[in-house]
Amino acid sequence: MKNKIVITNLVLLTAVYPAVAEQTQEILNQLNNLDITLKILFLITILSIAPALLITITSFTRIVIILSLLRHALGIPQTPPNQVIIALSLFLTFFIMKPVFDDINQNALQPYLKKEIGDLEALEKAKTPIKKFMLTNTRKEDLKLFIDLAEEKPKSPEEVSMTALIPAFMISEIKTAFEIVFVIFLPFLIIDLLIASILMSMGMMMIPPMLISLPFKLVLFIMADGWELLTKALVESYR
To answer: Max Cα separation, the chain?
Structure first.
């Protein structure tokens, strides 16, 4: 089981970073005659950059930004705590990325474990669904920016390099997250303005408007099934 997890993460890692894939392939060729324990130790060492992999090629960035700024819209920046936000973002990421991971497991990992395909072929098959996911969710203008900066001239989306696609995907995710957060902020901002106007008209300027508006914003969010609507919107934004 441990071997399977290690190999799965290695396939994902090397599929995303071509330079890592080339170096890994060279080293694996040199390690063919070594003991399996040493190979596992080598693979675990490579997995030290797995957190960066999670952030750069999945939906985690968009989700964690939206959930974090939602707390500020409600006026409770410390609730839910960061651990809860990250945990929820992580499991939503796994849920959204499940079709991609299933594709990698079926077409790259399982044939590789059964020794039906070689290392490089497994990496290429693993890279295809990841690249397709990122291309689908990357804005054309962001992708064009990095293609121009890299001075690349791809004839088709499949020829776009990962070094240009990954930063374009991340910037696109951040932009989309900010747009969604803006829409979320509007109803809560209106409540804050109404409460502030009422307090000023009553001459109660010493009372913080946020203190009075917080219960109303929480009631609005609960009555509108805010968590359900937000989760549904996040998941469907990738389909």
So the answer is: 82
Q: Which residues contact 66 (CB under 8 A, 6 or more apart)?
A: 177, 180, 181, 184, 230, 234
85 and 199 in contact (C-beta within 8 Å)? no
- Tell me the one-letter amino acid at 69: L
Cβ(23)–Cβ(119) below 8 Å:
no
- Note the pLDDT tens digit of each residue in 103-152: 888 887 777 777 777 767 777 787 888 888 888 888 888 888 888 887 87
Which among 8, 14, 226, 184 is positioned nearest to 97, based on CA atoms?
8
pLDDT recorded at residue 10: 46
C-alpha to C-alpha distance for 161 and 5, rounded to whole angstroms: 27
Distance CA 77, CA 61 (A): 18
| Distance between CA atoms of residues 108 and 7, nearest Å | 11
